[in-house]
Specification:
With about 300 residues, this protein is an alpha/beta fold. The chain is built from 10 helices and 9 strands. α2 (about 75-85) packs across α10 (about 280-295). It is globular.
Length: about 300
């Protein structure tokens, strides 16, 4: 009798595992199918419109511009073009795993993002006398980490930096981790509030999908950046929206106070969400970014054909 109960229990467990695997395949196929239907890929596997941005301008002054988590260079394209119009050479790389298929996105890791950031900076620095850095959201967190590795960076602009993990988001991250056995992908909620401008929101190329592992990697970058803030010594402009749906004002103020720089300014915007580089505030963001960089390294000379990083 006991052996029959054990056999029945084993069969039930096996059936449950088979059912769970089938459910996970179904969820994975649904998410990947929707993503494939929403985005088309170029020949090199990048979502069309999500390619790295390179705008040659000054032969001496360049800007490294970093996009955020689950996003693409498209989110900083307005800022890139505004800086280029002002004479700068601008390079906005596509971080590993971003702007590709969901399966490739799921392979994204913090160390790869950090390495690509450093490689992009080094590539510019090898060809330009002056390289300043700006980042949006997680890109700003990566910029903070880079700034501690390369203290000679002359100026930094942080756009709604995703630094540290607020309690509410930490709970969300934990819930996603606990549910990963049922769902290999999850919908990233709240993204529609990150850009208030409906026209800009329609152009956004963020996947809007996360995995538990990716959120773990995002947390690693955010926490490391927070611990690195006191070591940031170059001039820093910190721009944040009062209506940011990801970062609370109290957290932004705390992180700003942690900066080690003696030349630091925090300015508040209004009328836009988290992605201030693409939202209604984008012209003001571009103006202040250009003015900050020009204040510390001088405005670039008239634009000329620059080298490629």
């Amino acid at each position: 009798m006991r052996s029959r109960r054990l056999l029945a229990s084993g069969i039930a467990t096996a059936a449950a595992m088979v059912g769970l695997a089938a459910w996970r395949r179904r969820v994975r196929n649904q998410f990947e199918g929707r993503h494939a239907g929403r985005f088309s890929l170029s020949g090199d596997g990048i979502v069309r419109g999500a390619e790295p941005i390179l705008l040659p301008g000054s032969r001496t002054h360049a800007v490294l511009l970093l996009h955020g988590f689950n996003d693409t260079p498209q989110s900083v394209s307005a800022l890139a073009h505004a800086l280029h119009t002002a004479g700068w050479t601008v390079y906005a790389p596509l971080l590993p795993g971003h702007g590709r298929t969901l399966r490739e996105m799921a392979e994204g890791r913090a160390e790869a993002w950090r390495a690509h950031t450093r490689e992009s900076y080094d590539g510019l620095r090898a060809q330009y006398d002056t390289v300043v850095v700006s980042g949006q959201s997680m890109g700003a967190a990566l910029a903070v980490e880079l700034a501690t590795e390369v203290p000679e960076i002359p100026a930094l602009v942080l756009l709604a930096p995703f630094i540290g993990v607020p309690t509410a988001l930490s709970l969300k991250f934990t819930a996603t981790w606990l549910l990963q056995s049922l769902a290999p992908y999850s919908t990233s909620t709240g993204g529609e509030r990150s850009i208030h401008d409906p026209d800009a929101r329609a152009l956004a190329l963020g996947a809007g999908v996360v995995t538990a592992r990716l959120l773990h990697e995002l947390r690693a970058v955010a926490k490391q950046a927070q611990s690195a803030l006191p070591a940031v010594t170059m001039p820093v402009l910190y721009l944040q929206s009062r209506e940011d749906n990801r970062i609370r004002a109290i957290d932004a103020e705390r992180n700003f106070r942690l900066l080690g720089s003696t030349e630091r300014v925090q300015r508040w915007l209004s009328g836009c969400g988290h992605i201030i580089s693409a939202d209604y505030c984008r012209e003001e963001v571009a103006r202040q970014t250009h003015e900050w960089f020009s204040r510390w390294v001088g405005a670039p000379a008239a634009a000329t054909a620059g080298a490629s990083p």
